[in-house]
Amino acid sequence: MKNVAIFASGTGSNAKKIIEHFQNSPIARVTLIVCNKPGAGVLEIAKTHGIPSLIIEKERFFSGDAYLPLLQEWQIDFIVLAGFLWKVPAALVTAFPQKIINIHPALLPKYGGKGMYGSKVHEAVIKASEKVSGISIHYVNEIYDDGTTILQVTCPVDENETAETLAAKIHVLEHSHYPQVIENLIKQPDSKKS
Ligand code: GRF
């Protein structure tokens, strides 16, 4: 049984889907929510599902031990970012090779990078008159939104699309693909505990 930690600092709708997907799974369980924002919706979701959460602080994350000893104590095998806006420090990337993934609400490499999150992404897509947007699931390295792509799924950007309507479409795609992608990766023989 693999232990999955979800790093999330927002509403947590993806976290909820992932938690529920693995609730009765024979292969993995979400055992920890890591969050940098006290009061974030995801903390309530964790509580409802009886999953412990860890509130992290900037200084320790970036200049201290990056919470690595704690993650090891929790025997975390796989890290899923779902609305986590801080860059993942090198110490974690190195300690979890190919075991940290992220989801981005656009088709990377476009509309990614620092500051490109939430409605800003969708506004940029609409402003550029893109006809298609979608989701990108990718491995995490030390550069924002830069690791190898695992899956991209597209959706049309309709006439009169707003950031809100596009966000809603993208969330549907995220919820229907992210949990299964995580399951597939965990099932791969090379994602066993190192
Ligand atoms: C998602 O759109 C994801 O692509 C991005 O952050 C958002 C998180 O949404 N990285 P939620 O908190 O899971 O609803």
Overview of this structure, please?
With 194 residues, this protein is α/β, with parallel strands linked by helices. It contains seven helices and seven strands. Strand 4 (78-81), helix 5 and strand 5 (100-104) form a beta-alpha-beta unit. Helix 1 (13-22) packs parallel to helix 7 (163-187) and helix 6 crosses helix 7. The mean pLDDT is 94. 5-O-phosphono-beta-D-ribofuranosylamine binds at residues 8, 10-15, 82-83, 103-105, 174. The site of 5-O-phosphono-beta-D-ribofuranosylamine has 13 residues, from helix 1 and strand 5.
CATH architecture verdict:
3-Layer(aba) Sandwich
What is the strand content? 15-25%
Strand order of the largest sheet: 3-2-1-4-5-6-7
Weakly predicted, low-confidence segments: none
Q: What is the straight-line distance between the termini?
A: 14 Å
- Percent helix among the residues? 25-40%
